[in-house]
Amino acid sequence: MHDKTQLKAEAKSVLDGLKGKTLSNKDRMAIPVQDMPCQEAAIRAGNMEEVAIGYSEEQARVEAYRCLQCKNAPCISGCPVSIDIPGFLRLSAEGDFTGAADVIRKTNLLPAICGRVCPQEKQCQLVCTLGKALKSVDKAVQIGRVERYIADRERTSGQSPIPEIAAPTGKRVAVVGAGPAGMTVAADVRREGHEVVIFEAFQKPGGVMVYGIPEFRLPKAIVSEEADKLRAMGVKFELNTLIGRTIPLETLFKEDGFDAVFIGVGAGLPKFMNIPGENYVGVFSANEYLTRANLMRAWDQKRAATPIYHSKRVAVLGGGNVAMDSARMALRLGAEEVHVLYRRTREEMPARAEEVEHAMEEGIIFDFLSSPTEILGNEKGRVTGLRVLSYELGQADASGRRSPVAIKGSEQDVAFDTVIVAIGNDSNPLLAKTTKGLAVDKRGQVLVDENQKTSLDAVWAGGDIVLGAATVILAMGEGRRAAAAINRYLI
Which residues pair with 314 in a beta bridge? Predict the structure, then answer.
């Protein structure tokens, strides 16, 4: 059920029943999980508006009441930035959303973003005591949904405070990359009074939050607002600037006078399957496809002149969140039929369960236990289909997921005119190739110590360039560690 009016009414009824009661853990466990109101699938598949509408105040309070306020608070350790989750939930249940926002802001400057795109079911909600008691992560306190409500309430009030800035120190810090890690470092370092300049290769700050995650999951206005907060704090942005090519990293020290540098350039090198036919017209990396659609607004053909490949039958290869974003974007760009091909089953998919459910509701077709061995094309060099091999599940691999085993003789040709490869990204190789002495591993990921310090003096790194393709909140967690180390270094 996704109707906001009905969900709000039901929540109000529950809230009225809780008034004046001293709740036991048994009472809290009996409170129903609050569903997220959403656009109807048939409607949202044809627009770019946000799918999840967000909790009402009544829903946010009811959901917050479900928190058991347990003393060991495993949810805090499950959060990469260690938000005081029981603290903000307690205040939310009482209706003190301003106080709740203050609690969140102590460790997380991007709650409106994290509340939308973070995989809470694999982090704070996975270890929630209530979820474990009810034997289902789906029945854990919906922490992210309440966090989103608090952040949106503050945003729409126009009263989102700017963090206090310490007295100027005379120290200068360069942040390379305006993604979640870089923006987090910029905020934490600037708060201590240091001058901060963010260098960003694209024309807009936000990194993967603007080029990768679609508007229907994360409205770009929210990312823009967060960048504006940094500007209000005194952080400067140098956009359309490619460090490592336009400006060598060492120049930031020798010529520009920076005292410390943070590298947060992300994982921008798309992986391909290395099968025949990947050079045909109509084959795209998910990176390119989503960048055209999101950052370059190809979905808005009335106002943007960005070229986009017009498709009828689309195959998306992969099973992660990027594959879900690509498939759902293709549908919104006019594709008549979109298939997701994945070598395992739904149970093994790394994508968030909510994103898979939304995709299925919108009509995306999932071809599980399937993967191509070749991309087929015509004499003009355009995609005409895939040669698809079927699989069955074997023994579990090192990750705990059962390994796919090819079924001999099961290949068949399936017609498609577009193929989007969404099987992950490698780290951006530019800085490693242009920066002498920067240590990386065999995958090109920058090597760091426990404080995000690289092999170079006064240089730290974090986010996807260190982790590989990860999540917004994990990148922020690395940014916080790096910022703390930078601040100690600059004392």
Answer: 338, 418
